[in-house]
Amino acid sequence: MLTIASLGTDASQGKGQIISNINACVAVQSTVKSTLGPYGGDLLLVDSNGKQTITNDGATVMKLLDIVHPAARILTDIARSQDAEVGDGTTSVVVLAGEILKEVRDLVEQGVSSQTIIKGLRRASGMAVNKVKEIAVDMIESATNEEKKVETLRRLAGTAMNSKLIKRNSDFFTKMVVDAVLSLDQDDLNEKLIGVKKVTGGGLQDSLFVNGVAFKKTFSYAGFEQQPKFFKDPKIVCLNVELELKSEKDNAEVRVEQVSEYQAIVDAEWQIIYNKLEAIYKTGAKVVLSKLPIGDLATQYVPTSRGVSSVLTL
């Protein structure tokens, strides 16, 4: 087998290379280790563009670290997988991996073969998993009533928040998180249905949970200030049609012989949009949402003339 490497490539192997790889991983671990736990410190990270980030979140730190060493980049992949699959424990998994590698380094220096070390680690991993399953307790199923179940969920969520910047408001946010999760279909639990909308200004406790659909949009038509901002059980119309007058398409041509014919075409265009607005009114809806443009005619005609309170383009 012929191995080809580019000029200047450093190709090395054996005990020295293994120890070098371990040292690179341990260096990354020592950087992240200081953020572990409820009393972990924050790190100030500055990228090549001078952007500053202050965080103690392991996933964020690993993402922002400019790691070049190929072996050390494995820790980044571990943290990314942990964050994607579990959503927490990224710092712990990196620190744990680093501590295991420290023990492995001592074995390598003593001359133990890498195959023997790998075999032992796999066996130890299986034993650890079995022990965890043996002592694990399903706290949710063991809850005797719904109130205790909710309290257990809040305690579990609070544990995850203890290492975050919002730990000082953990009681406030654990309630919000649990309420959001319980609002989902418990047989599906599609967390992608939970969205976070960021609004500039205010404090942490100005955050709120909306048990429904929230759009980060504002009303911009004239007179919207006088419209209600709260609706209880309204009928909502969701549209995928335009509610505005548009110019003709490219290369469109209409031939008329008299002015009255031109006026008839204009009147027909107006009548089309009036028919749409009248159909919306007959539904009895109080809120109109549309993916396509809503023109000034619709925003004025519908709210003021027909009693529909809010019109919004998504």
From TrEMBL:
Belongs to the TCP-1 chaperonin family. It comes from Penicillium capsulatum. It is found in: Cytoplasm. The keyword ATP-binding applies. This is CCT-eta. Pfam families: Cpn60_TCP1. GO terms for cellular component: chaperonin-containing T-complex. Transmembrane segments: none annotated. Keywords: ATP-binding, Chaperone, Cytoplasm, Nucleotide-binding. One of its GO terms (molecular function) is ATP hydrolysis activity. The keyword Cytoplasm applies. InterPro entries: Chaperone_TCP-1 (IPR017998), Chaperonin_TCP-1_CS (IPR002194), Cpn60/GroEL/TCP-1 (IPR002423), GroEL-like_apical_dom_sf (IPR027409), GROEL-like_equatorial_sf (IPR027413), TCP-1-like_intermed_sf (IPR027410).
